[in-house]
Amino acid sequence: MLSQRPGITYINIIFSMIIVALSVYTISWHNQNYQLYKVANAVQKKNQKIMALHKQLLSEHSAQISGKMIKEKALKILQMKHPNRIRTLVL
After folding, report:
1. How far apart are the first and last CA of the chain?
2. DSSP state for residue 89 in the 8-state scheme
3. pTM for the structure as a whole
4. Nearest-CA neighbor of 35 among 46, 43, 47?
5. 79: phi > 0 → left, psi -120 to 50 → alpha, else beta; which?
6. How far apart are CA 62 and CA 58, in angstroms?
7. How far is CA 60 from CA 4, 19, 41, 55, 70, in A?
8. Torsion angles phi and psi, residue 81, rounded to 5
9. For the chain, which end, N or C, has fewer CB atoms within 10 Å of the first or last residue's CB respectively?
10. Sign of torsion, CA 24 28 33 38?
11. Residues 6+ apart with CB under 8 A from 81
12. The dihedral of CA 9, 11, 17, 20: what is its sign?
């Protein structure tokens, strides 16, 4: 019985070392995931700001272009002229 005790002690020491090593890896893995989450969150917020600015610029540009294009088309292609006098219809 005494000869089996040192073998069990060595096995317990090895198991405890394995548990400590796995705990260190788990802590390291959790820390890396947290850092990745912070970076992803910051990138997502930056991307949302860029998309909002892009949409705003597109809407402003389309508003400017739509009126300008209609006026140019009326003046050049349809050969319309500015009205000298505005007429009203009486019904």
Report:
1. 119
2. -
3. 0.53
4. 43
5. left
6. 6
7. 84, 61, 29, 9, 16
8. -125, 160
9. C
10. positive
11. 75
12. negative
Residue 71 amino acid letter: K
Q: Give per-residue pLDDT as tens, 68-90.
A: 777 777 777 776 666 666 667 67
φ and ψ of 90, to 5 deg: -105, 125
The first and second tokens of residue 56, run together, are 């705003």
3-class SS of residue 81:
coil
Alpha helices (H) along the chain: 4-72
Residue 73: strand, helix, or coil: helix
Residues 80/74, Cβ–Cβ less than 8 Å? yes
d(CA 68, CA 78): 15
pLDDT in tens, 29-63: 999 999 999 999 999 999 999 999 999 988 888 87
